[in-house]
Amino acid sequence: MNIEIPKKFKPIINNAHQVALSVFRPISRKYDRAEHEYPKELDMLASVLDGFNEGDPESSAGAAQTGKGKVKDDGSVKNGANMSTCLGALELCYGDVGFLLAMPRQGLGNAAIAAVANDEQLKRFEGKWAAMAITEPGCGSDSGAIRTTAIKDGDHYILNGEKIYVTSGERADCVVVWATLDPKVGRAAIKSFVVEWGTPGMELARLEHKLGIRASDTAAINFSDCRVPAENLLGTPEIDTKKGFGGVMETFDNTRPLVACFALGCARASLERTRELLKEAVKLDYARPVDNCSAVEAELYRMEADWEAAYWLAMKAAWMADNKQANSLEASISKAKAGRVGNAITLKCVELAGSIGFTEDDLLEKWARDSKILDIFEGTQQIQKLIIARRLLGLTSKELK
Asked: Which residues fall within 8 angstroms of residue 19, CB to CB, at 6 or more apart?
């Protein structure tokens, strides 16, 4: 792996950085206070991103291009959609995480479709904004405990259950719903279905009030005898107990490095703002040994080192995905590291900035609130460590719980 970022991605990074500074940050506080109000400014930006995707789908700055893509396995090294998406997302979250999550047609459900859908489904759902519905009231980090059912009935599946914490659940065109074909079989029976809004039996229960990412709507959705066309099932309808949960979990191998980059963008914004606030009192000197500097300098150096480590772990996981290498271990490592580091950095920056960091006069306190979810969704810190341990020890989920 070459640790130099490919030149072809520089325009994406620069454009996303400018969007973060000129579009996101000026309206960030407005929509933080006006929770559930749709940021209409994002419509124009989404159209621009669509133009980027149309011109070069391998270089999207949004979140819709993760997944298997069209990479040819010819033995050459690829720097493709996963890495470009991660780099673009990092820059956009340097402005506002909630706005990226609220971006039309850039939902995590789109990543699920890209990872699992066949060619016909990819074409049929092209241009759709897809949310992702996994979590249930009795099922949080353990996706294998899903109880929403999908019963085959002719050319349809009948879905029954409740989903909570669905990011962009109300605003999206459709929702990728995880449900089990047979609760007795376990994880192997869990499949994902694309359910479009307007389908009878699909009902918005409520919108959540949240600690952070308030610009993004987070919905609870009920499914009551909801009839979904069988052709909307992503992947194979057969229950393969040998393959187990592998099919639907492919989505996380692509999205966990992406969420890691969400955390990295937010953390970098906090770090840079803190250095700016302290520049008169703290003179950073990287040539001086860390044990000869002030406590504040030492904290900044430590945070910078942690950020750098998390950054390259995320880049490695994204690079592996682009090159069709199994990256479940690396994806979980990157998410665990970046989620923890991102939250720790934003909170420490609030502390170092004193009263400025604790008030709404600055965005530091908002970034600290926003960062917490990035250590939770797409698998909590504890779940990531469990996955990492299983991969390293070669144990199954039954053998190591």
From this structure: 45, 61, 91, 92, 95
- Token couple for 200: 């009878």
Rounded Cα–Cα distance for residues 70 and 74 (Å): 12
Strands 190-196 and 174-180: antiparallel
Is 51 within 8 Å of 227 (Cβ atoms)? no
Q: Answer yes or no: do 136 and 198 share one domain.
A: yes
Question: Which residue segment(s) compose the domain that 82 sits in?
Answer: 7-124
Residue type, 122: L
Catalytically annotated residue among 297, 299, 378, 399: 378
Q: Would you state the structure tokens that stand for residue 52, as one six-digit string? A: 């980027």
Tell me whether residue 378 is one of the annotated catalytic residues: yes
Whether residues 146 and 284 share a domain: the answer is no
Same domain, 376 and 287: yes
Q: Which of 108, 111, 177 is nearest to 146 (CA)?
A: 177
Terminal CA-CA length for the chain: 33
Is residue 10 within a helix (H) or strand (E), and if so which, with residue range?
Answer: helix 10-19
* 141 secondary structure, DSSP code: S
- Total count of domains within the chain: 3
Residue pair 193/163 in contact by the 8 Å Cβ criterion: no
Q: Is residue 220 part of a domain?
A: yes
Looking up tokens 């298997």, which residue turns up? 68
Contact 192, 234 (CB under 8 A): yes
Q: What is the pLDDT along the chain (401 residues), one digit of tens a residue?
A: 667 888 999 999 999 999 999 999 999 999 999 999 999 999 888 776 665 554 443 433 334 444 444 455 566 788 888 899 899 999 999 999 999 999 988 788 888 888 788 999 999 999 899 999 999 998 877 777 899 999 999 999 999 999 999 999 999 999 999 999 998 887 889 999 999 999 999 999 999 999 999 999 999 999 999 999 999 999 888 887 555 555 556 778 888 999 999 999 999 999 999 999 999 999 999 998 888 899 999 999 999 999 999 999 999 999 998 888 999 999 999 999 999 999 999 999 999 999 999 999 999 999 999 999 999 988 899 999 999 999 999 998 889 98
Altogether, the residues listed in the chain come to a count of 401
